[in-house]
Design goal:
This protein is an alpha+beta fold. The chain is built from 31 helices and 17 strands. The two termini are 19 Å apart.
């Protein structure tokens, strides 16, 4: 109804959600140039209901706290009241709880922040009255925001200075709130104060820790009756190892009598802080003594020098297998492989990587026989603690891996299950030739050039001929198809259905394979445009294997970033960087988020830092060119784009950026020549219509550009998802035709944001 309209000084862009009381729209503040959420009350509401939205605005606006969703303005248009509020990105606490119970270390910081926000509200003499998980947002950075103060009550002023020292005074009587989260006095319609919010928070804390509502029954009436007349079960029913202090805190928050409940949010917070400090001690001690090992890439001593894939694959398999041991820290692949052929001593490498032990080795393969030499070095003493030579048939490679892993764990005094016994659960095989082909396929795929990715498909297919029940080559095949489509090297209509079939086959063989969930999440995001299903898959992959840096990066860049959920994306990338600190692709990704957010100076600094590590890294040049262009550093932008074209031997993706940047610099003739190159190439090979459109936008050929974006929609071009965030398309994003494309793509603003910005 309001899309395209100007409400006050807000330009309404699109509808992003609705609740029982009204609708929420994405809008742009034309004065301050920021995006906001506009929450409108539905038509046909009573005067009392209309006054509620104004009350919500006044209540929230009175609280200046980072844990409360900010309200900027309130007004009325066409007899419908609205409030302009902070646009939030993330998930509601309700959604997080729906995925299962939270560890104390995860839940505690959030509850502390909620108590701090309540303390601020109560200090302003406001009681929220409707605190529940759906009214708490967890931002991408992991902080909370309280929302929906529409039922907030103001408590009376103290009668005297002496009265000021008392806790919170009573609010006017009346039933308000959500039945399952009301305090007993609130549910009875009696007078209540801020302690009612603390009872609600106690229920929320219980749900977070145990995964169940302490009073939930089959009906609302039965639930309220349980709140009124029953005690909540002790949390140790669900958490037998819960610290006594934790059980006491929850029990006190859920006291039915407000006089024996926590007297204030500040007091509640104080106990939570004590609990937090107590729980920090044991993990700190365990981290300090955690045994650690770094596994360096094996040296290829084969006569032909053609076993690099086998050498890297063997080291990677050991890293993955040992990484499953919770009481062992295994140095990330990218960090360990950074020291391939390093001139540093093993002690120097170990100290840099903070590893107690280092495993180095060599491999020589001849026909069906393989000779593996391994040496485990203690970093502190710079002495070898174990050396072994394995001269075996290729078929024995799995036993060799078992023996190496067992020897490492014995010397680090940790225990593990044998690798071969876990083969079925990890997508493994006992067929050595299938395994060898898979390793070669992954080795080629990791190089990420079009030629090598296509070669990897042949190796994955070879592995599946040898053992069609081996799940990992199916995932590898899916990843190769995804990569070709994502890089614009092949038609998505050809590649993505094949990827989907392969990954579903992998999950049929192993329903708990983390790599398969990651790949399916990518398919669902970039081809199906089913963002919710994609997020579910990525989160499942992280639950199964939280140490996978690639999963977190793909989740951030292929699912969260296109939806403009930058805070959550950045938090996933932070974890990915901790897991793989030497990965150039991961190091580049935060700069891409800066570029998409419009912080071009920060993006430039990040890309330049990556290029200081590796001057020839394509992605850093490719995105640095775009950032320089947006800051009118045209010559620098053209230089970086030309470098990207040279590194990729003239990929369509890099040529498109070059053509756009040339147009932005005013060199329309050069830009038109590049455009013609892509048009000519399209006659014989797939070229994404988005790449054509990008140059046409630069040349101000808007109608032609939008025609190509419509074609991109028809062929389900994977790079279509970036028009919602790439600066190059900013000038056409407000065109109604482009808004329609984004709407059909499910892009612009994610559904979660609508929940964050105005749930009733």
């Amino acid at each position: 109804m309001f899309i395209g309209a100007k409400i006050s000084h807000f330009h309404v862009l699109e509808k992003i959600g609705q609740g029982g009381m009204g609708e929420v729209y994405l809008a742009e503040d034309t004065i301050l140039h920021r995006r906001v959420a506009l929450k409108f009350l539905k038509t046909g509401r009573s005067e009392a209901e209309r006054s509620r939205i104004i009350a919500e605005a006044r209540a929230a606006a009175a609280i200046d706290h980072p844990g409360v969703c900010k309200v900027f303005e309130a007004g009325e248009v066409e007899s419908r009241s609205f409030i302009a509020m902070e646009l939030l990105e993330g998930d509601t606490l309700e959604k997080r709880i729906s995925r299962g119970a939270m560890a104390v270390q995860e839940a505690l910081p959030l509850v502390i922040e909620i108590s701090e926000a309540l303390s601020e509200a109560h200090g302003k003499r406001l009681v929220h009255c409707d605190l529940k998980p759906s009214n708490v947002m967890i931002t991408g950075a992991g902080h909370v925001k309280l929302m929906d103060f529409g039922l907030a009550r103001r408590i009376r002023e103290p009668a005297s200075a002496e009265d000021e020292t008392m806790t919170l005074r009573t609010a006017p009587p009346g039933i308000a709130g959500t039945p399952g989260y009301m305090a007993p006095e609130q549910a009875k319609g009696e007078a209540f104060d801020g302690r009612a919010d603390l009872f609600s928070l106690g229920i929320i804390f219980y749900e977070m820790l145990c995964g169940v509502h302490p009073f939930r029954r089959n009906t609302s009436h039965a639930t309220v009756a349980a709140i009124l007349y029953e005690d909540a079960p002790d949390i140790r029913k669900y958490l037998p190892d819960a610290p006594p202090l934790l059980a006491d805190i929850v029990s006190r928050a859920l006291e039915r009598n407000p006089e024996t409940r926590y007297a204030s949010a500040a007091e509640f917070r104080s106990d939570l802080i004590r609990l937090r400090d107590a729980t920090r001690l044991e993990p700190a001690r365990s981290r300090a003594t955690l045994p650690s090992v770094a596994i360096l890439p094996f040296q290829d001593l084969s006569a032909a020098g053609d076993q690099g894939y086998f050498c890297d694959g063997l080291a990677e398999e050991l890293i993955v297998a040992l990484g499953r041991i919770k009481r062992l820290r295994v140095v990330a692949r990218s960090a360990a492989f950074h020291y391939r052929n390093s001139a540093l001593s093993l002690s120097e490498i170990g100290n840099t990587l903070k590893a107690a032990m280092i495993l180095e080795g060599s491999l020589r393969k001849s026909g069906e026989r393989v000779r593996i030499v391994v040496n485990l070095v203690e970093v502190a003493s710079a002495s070898s603690v174990w050396t072994e030579v394995y001269d075996r048939r290729l078929d024995d490679i799995f036993e060799v891996q078992d023996e190496i892993a067992r020897a490492i764990t014995q010397r680090l005094r940790v225990t593990m299950n044998l690798l071969s016994s876990e083969a079925a659960s990890t997508g493994g095989t006992q067929n050595a030739r299938s395994y060898e082909a898979y390793l070669k396929g992954r080795y080629l795929w990791n190089r990420r050039t079009e030629r090598n990715v296509r070669l990897s498909i042949a190796e994955f297919e070879k592995a599946l001929i040898e053992d069609p029940e081996y799940a990992l080559p199916w995932v590898g095949l899916a990843d190769a198809c995804i990569t070709l489509a994502l890089y614009g090297a092949a038609s998505p209509m050809d590649m993505m259905p094949r990827a989907k079939q392969a990954v579903n086959h992998a999950l049929g063989l192993n329903p708990e394979l983390a790599e398969a969930f990651m790949s399916r999440g990518c398919v669902r995001a970039i081809f199906d445009w089913d963002w919710n299903a994609a997020e579910t898959d990525f989160e499942q992959a992280i639950r199964v294997n939280p140490r996978s840096a690639q999963t977190r990066q793909w989740f951030a860049m292929n699912c969260l970033a296109p939806q403009r959920r930058f805070e959550r994306a950045r938090s996933e990338l932070k974890i990915a960087s901790e897991l793989e600190p030497m990965s150039l692709a991961i190091a580049t990704s935060p700069g891409i988020l800066d570029l998409f957010r419009g912080d071009y100076d920060a993006a430039i600094r990040r890309f330049q830092a990556v290029l200081e590590l590796e001057e020839g890294f394509y992605l850093a040049h490719y995105f640095l060119a775009q950032a320089c262009s947006e800051t009118s550093m045209h010559q620098d932008a053209i230089r970086e784009a030309e470098r990207a074209v040279a590194i990729t031997n003239g990929s369509s993706e890099s040529l498109s950026v070059l053509g756009y940047i040339q147009a932005a610099a005013g060199n329309e003739a050069a830009s038109s020549r590049v455009l013609q190159m892509l048009l000519d190439r399209r006659a014989n090979a797939y070229v994404s219509p988005v790449l054509i459109a990008q140059i046409q936008v630069g040349l101000s050929r808007t109608d032609a550009a939008i025609e190509n974006l419509i074609k991109a929609l028809e062929v389900r071009a994977t790079d279509l998802m970036w028009i919602a965030v790439r600066p190059a398309f900013a000038r056409v994003r407000r065109d109604p035709r482009v808004r329609e494309i984004l709407s059909r793509h499910g892009l612009g603003i994610p559904a979660q944001t609508s929940t964050a910005s105005g749930q009733d």
